[in-house]
Design a protein that fits this description.
It is elongated, with a radius of gyration of 32 Å. The chain is built from 3 helices and no strands. The chain has 2 domains: 63 residues; 31 residues.
């Protein structure tokens, strides 16, 4: 293989030869953004997983707390049902009000 002659080097190679630091910076910039976008996708999947895990554990903890309070005699099943229905009714009224205001 013959040694390259400056007349045979293409335009792209000439730019690299004149500005090697700019070429390295451009390659770094491209690789950075590729890595960034790959990590965004991984991060959103991970965020969804941890959110689901958090909600599951929170629900289990609340259920355990309710069972312990019921067993200790602090609350009764009717109290929990009443609190749920009261919350549901208040939320329904607020939602209807907000929807009516939006129209």
């Amino acid at each position: 293989m013959a040694d390259p002659n400056t007349n045979q080097i293409g335009r792209f190679q000439q730019l690299i030869a004149r500005n090697p630091i700019a070429f390295v910076a451009a390659v770094f910039f491209v690789m950075f953004w590729i890595t960034y976008f790959i990590n965004i996708n991984k991060n959103s999947d991970s965020e969804q997983y941890w959110k689901e895990l958090y909600e599951k554990e929170k629900w289990e903890k609340d259920a355990l707390k309710d069972q312990l309070l019921r067993k200790a005699g602090y609350i009764e099943q009717e109290t929990i049902k009443k609190a749920d229905s009261t919350l549901r009714e208040k939320t329904q009224e607020q939602a209807k009000t907000i929807l009516n205001q939006a129209k």
